[in-house]
TrEMBL record:
<feature type="coiled-coil region">
    <location>
        <begin position="124"/>
        <end position="154"/>
    </location>
</feature>
<keyword id="KW-0175">Coiled coil</keyword>
<keyword id="KW-0677">Repeat</keyword>
<dbReference type="Pfam" id="PF02138">
    <property type="entry name" value="Beach"/>
</dbReference>
<dbReference type="InterPro" id="IPR023362">
    <property type="entry name" value="PH-BEACH_dom"/>
</dbReference>
<dbReference type="InterPro" id="IPR000409">
    <property type="entry name" value="BEACH_dom"/>
</dbReference>
<keyword id="KW-0853">WD repeat</keyword>
<dbReference type="InterPro" id="IPR015943">
    <property type="entry name" value="WD40/YVTN_repeat-like_dom_sf"/>
</dbReference>
<feature type="domain" description="BEACH">
    <location>
        <begin position="265"/>
        <end position="550"/>
    </location>
</feature>
<feature type="domain" description="BEACH-type PH">
    <location>
        <begin position="167"/>
        <end position="262"/>
    </location>
</feature>
<dbReference type="InterPro" id="IPR001680">
    <property type="entry name" value="WD40_rpt"/>
</dbReference>
<dbReference type="InterPro" id="IPR050865">
    <property type="entry name" value="BEACH_Domain"/>
</dbReference>
<dbReference type="Pfam" id="PF25400">
    <property type="entry name" value="PH_FAN"/>
</dbReference>
<dbReference type="InterPro" id="IPR057496">
    <property type="entry name" value="FAN-like_PH"/>
</dbReference>
<dbReference type="InterPro" id="IPR011993">
    <property type="entry name" value="PH-like_dom_sf"/>
</dbReference>
<dbReference type="InterPro" id="IPR036372">
    <property type="entry name" value="BEACH_dom_sf"/>
</dbReference>
<protein>
    <recommendedName>
        <fullName>BEACH domain-containing protein</fullName>
    </recommendedName>
</protein>
Length: 892
């Protein structure tokens, strides 16, 4: 845990200007002479030297803290036995009573005399004089001032007397310069880590506590964070719920600290999104908790107002006296972003969008900005607004003062598109009720701003929060929330899908559009940070495909293994083999039962089909045979010799009965499996038939061949009309695979040169072109509105011409031979060498593997029974065929 010592200090870093740097403090006597009135006052206290101001904190608690801007100094800074200058503005901050706007004393003429009590007066004078010169020259003040202090900071050392026990051993030998991050403020200091405690020693004694301590055993979870557009942040959440956020000098230092802490004790890792998603879908966690987890995974933190957690605006009924959560009219359309809820306003945005040069955006403002968060929290955290607004509250008529009024503004104003924050769904009502008795001003209608005005259906602030939470957890929202997740965290966040969804924001708000690490100019760098802070930022994109709805799980659905906790903190891919777990329902530990049916064919099994009604498997092979296998008993029931040549592909013409089979003998065989006889043989090719697709509704068989022809044949009464042959296209290379959409409106044709072209089957015209350079197309597969293209070593997903996903297989694991998709979320790929990879399409990440991973052992030769060619997943059974004619059957 972190321990704090109470302090009588009234000073706060919130008194600094935005981006202002704190340098040092000193004890001093300060004499103030009012040159206009001839009055003077002498007080003891602390002088805080900052990059834009001198801040004087008198010892007497009843006296205000005073801010003196360097740019308001009207005379040279002199030095005798004290430092003196004259100034024309003094800002007073009263700390007795509730936080209040600062008092500006303008057009004054004060002489300020600072007499350091313990510091060398010349050293202090020279520092203040240099900072004033920098401010007067109007350069990049913060960067220039930081140079003055850099040598001092580099020489700073951790005070070893803070270490609690001699038995503690350092986990990292070197001290580290870090910043502790809190909303709108940063504290520089030194981090020192032992095997028991994380020590943070601030450079400046802003409070009486000289060192902050975190007991490592009290850490619950850690998150790597992107701070100021750089991957340098680390957020630590304690078991007590307290959050501490640090930013490091660079990513390497952050990774080093993360690694040693993960390696020290069993710390809960960033829980797998796969698990969290499963828990949400199955109703084991609430909508609120799921959204909080998504925010955490999306780099959102309450310690960083530029990336504060974002929640959806839910309710649109603010007229009724009672809230009806069973009426869909009560709720906002979660399929649309805020900016698209008002159609008239949306058309204005679209008109501007069409006239705009690239990079285009619909909305110039964002749904989550520091200003929005500060506006919501002004009653709870007034210091945020006072800092951001230079010691003032916003104008009374612009403050957050009415739930209904704020909603109307969001629905109609082109500059207000804000979503909500988590505080709208928890019990603490202090952001709605003016419990601090803040003086927030008087509106133009002469009404004083106090508590937030509530809807008619809420009798109190707590009642409003309770009903808002009930709305969030309602059936309507539960059934629609995945659409909003698609907009904020998912595949509609950016790219072509964001355009279709009217969800395009300023390009600077998206992760990765600005590379601060490559900016050499400090002014440009600081300007980019300020711009991002003003615009707001989109969360990290978590999902590349459609998010599944809640309650979408069905009995028997499988979940792939994830790592909830990292024993001894080895954060690495966990091998999943047939002796262990591959999939699990979280509450069960069902293991795969691995069975082998050897030498079903004499050699390579080239394709397979399941007979849906009979639980039978049909395989064809390079030996020219067709085999029928009982999946329950795992025995070969029938064996038919179809051709002397290799059989290459098979499709169903009549369910469970008649099939079209391609052959290396340049033929198509129509085969009746019930009678074990050939119905027809089609010889219309000059080389091997490589792929077949049957469009059942259109009664059309599409064929691809190594003779570079793409043809179509009409079919009737389960036969191919040979005289109906039409060439769709003459291909430039040998065709390797053809796939069709479920509605048969489109086919995808891949070839040996790595090219895939989609063709509209209504007019047989080419649509989109895709390519995997240098690789043969092994397979293509339509998935929802996207296309998966499989090469020898990589798998890519495209949508509307844009790439969504990209998975790669290590070359040592062999060439990809087949892929399948399970439950719209998981992609399984097998290779010729005997490796099976499991990927999450939702997270675009690898989850694990089956059998052997050859990536670190290139010379290892795989088991011949497990050199895979094809696979299929049916009824809790994963079937993999091999090059030596064997079947691997994994049942769970």
């Amino acid at each position: 845990m972190i321990t704090f010592t109470s302090s009588k200090s009234r000073f706060s870093l919130y008194y600094l200007e935005e981006s202002e740097k704190y340098l040092q403090d000193l004890s001093a006597k300060v004499r103030q002479i009012n040159m206009l009135k001839g009055e003077e006052r002498l007080e003891r206290g602390k002088v805080h030297i900052c990059s834009r101001t001198l801040i004087f904190e008198p010892e007497k608690q009843e006296l205000p803290i005073q801010k003196l801007f360097y740019r308001m100094i009207t005379t040279p800074i002199k030095q005798t036995n004290f430092i003196s200058f004259r100034i024309k503005r003094i800002i007073e901050i009263f700390t007795q009573g509730p936080p209040s706007p600062y008092i500006y004393q303008d057009d004054v003429d004060f002489e300020i005399q600072i007499e350091p009590l313990f510091d060398n007066v010349k050293v202090v004078h020279d520092l203040i004089e240099k900072i004033q010169q920098i401010n007067q020259q109007k350069k990049d003040v913060e960067s220039e001032v930081e140079k003055l202090d850099s040598e001092k900071l580099q020489k700073a050392r951790f005070n070893m007397s803070f270490v609690e026990s001699v038995s503690e051993k350092p986990l990292i030998q070197k001290e580290m310069l870090v910043r502790r991050i809190m909303p709108l403020i940063q504290t520089k200091g030194i981090m020192y880590i032992t095997n028991k405690i994380i020590y943070f020693q601030p450079f400046f004694k802003i409070t009486l506590k000289p060192c902050k301590k975190i007991v490592i055993e009290q850490i619950k979870v850690m998150y790597k964070r992107r701070f100021e557009l750089l991957d340098i942040g680390l957020e630590i959440i304690l078991k007590s719920g307290k959050t501490i956020y640090y930013a490091f000098e660079n990513q390497e230092r952050m990774e080093e600290v993360y690694k040693v802490l993960i390696g020290k004790v069993t710390i809960e890792a960033e829980t797998s999104l796969e698990k969290i998603q499963y828990l949400w879908q199955s109703g084991q966690i609430s909508n609120f908790e799921y959204l909080m987890r998504l925010n955490q995974a999306g780099n959102r933190s309450s310690s960083d107002l530029t990336q504060y957690p974002v929640f959806p605006l839910i309710i649109v009924d603010y007229e009724s006296s009672e809230l009806n959560l069973n009426d869909s009219a009560t709720f906002r359309d979660l399929k649309k972003p805020i900016g698209a809820l008002n159609e008239k306003r949306l058309q204005e945005f679209k008109k501007r969008y069409e006239e705009m040069p690239p990079p285009k955006f619909l909305y110039g403002t964002h749904y989550s900005t520091p200003g929005y968060v500060i506006g919501y929290l002004v009653r709870q955290k007034p210091q945020y607004m006072l800092k951001l607004q230079s010691g003032k509250f916003d104008k009374p008529d612009r403050l957050f003062k009415s739930i209904k009024g704020d909603f109307k503004n969001v629905m109609n104003n082109t500059t207000s598109l804000k979503e909500l924050i988590p505080e709208f769904f928890i019990e603490d009502d202090s952001f709605l009720v003016n419990t601090l008795n803040l003086d927030l001003g008087v509106r133009q209608n002469q009404k004083k701003v106090g508590d937030v005005k509530l809807p008619k259906w809420a009798k109190s602030a707590k009642e409003y929060l309770r009903l808002n939470r009930l709305a969030l957890e309602s059936d309507y929202v539960s059934n629609e929330l995945h659409h909003w997740i698609d907009l904020i965290f998912g595949y509609k966040q950016k790219g072509p899908h964001s355009v279709e969804a009217n969800n395009v924001f300023h390009y600077l708000t998206y992760e990765g559009t600005v590379q601060l690490s490559q900016m050499q100019d400090p002014i440009e760098r600081q300007a980019s940070i300020c711009q991002i802070n003003e615009f707001g930022q989109c969360p990290k994109q978590l999902f590349k495909i459609q998010h599944p709805p809640k309650c979408a799980l069905r009995a028997g659905q499988i979940m792939y293994k994830f790592v909830e906790q990292i024993p001894k903190q080895k954060q690495e891919e966990v091998p999943i083999n047939v002796d262990g777990l591959m999939w699990e329902n979280l509450d069960k530990k069902n293991q795969f039962r691995h069975k082998m049916l050897q030498k079903v064919h004499k050699t390579n099994i080239t394709d397979l089909i399941v007979l849906e009604k009979k639980n039978l498997l049909v395989t064809i092979g390079q030996d020219g045979f067709l085999k029928v296998i009982d999946l329950k008993e795992l025995i070969v029931l029938k064996s038919f010799k179809v051709d002397e040549f290799c059989l290459s592909c098979i499709v169903t013409l009549k369910q469970d009965e008649i099939f079209a089979i391609g052959s290396w003998g340049s033929q198509i065989h129509v085969f009746n499996i019930n009678y074990g006889s050939k119905v027809q043989m089609v010889q219309r090719f000059n080389n091997s038939v490589s792929s077949l697709v049957y469009l059942m509704k259109k009664k059309i068989l599409v064929t691809g061949s190594w003779d570079c022809s793409l043809k179509r044949f009409e079919c009737s009464e389960n036969q191919i009309k040979q005289d109906s042959e039409e060439i769709i296209d003459d291909w430039e290379a040998q065709i390797t695979h053809i796939a069709a959409t479920e509605d048969e409106s489109m086919i995808a044709v891949g070839d040996i040169d790595g090219r895939v072209i989609t063709i509209n089957t209504n007019n047989w015209t080419q649509q989109q072109h895709y390519e995997i350079n240098g690789e043969k197309i092994v397979k293509s597969l339509f998935f929802r509105a996207s296309l998966l293209v499989v090469g020898d070593a990589q798998i890519k997903m495209f949508s509307n011409g844009s790439q969504l996903l990209d998975f790669k297989i290590d070359k040592n694991n062999g060439l990809i031979t087949d892929i399948i998709i399970d439950h719209d979320k998981y992609l399984i790929a097998c290779t010729k060498k005997g490796y099976v990879a499991v990927f999450s399409m939702v997270l675009e990440s690898k989850l694990g593997y089956l059998f052997t991973d050859f990536s670190g052992q290139a010379d290892l030769i795989g088991n011949q029974d497990q050199q895979f060619t094809k696979m299929i997943l049916r009824n809790k059974t994963l079937i993999l065929t091999s090059q030596n004619g064997s079947l691997n059957v994994l049942q769970y």
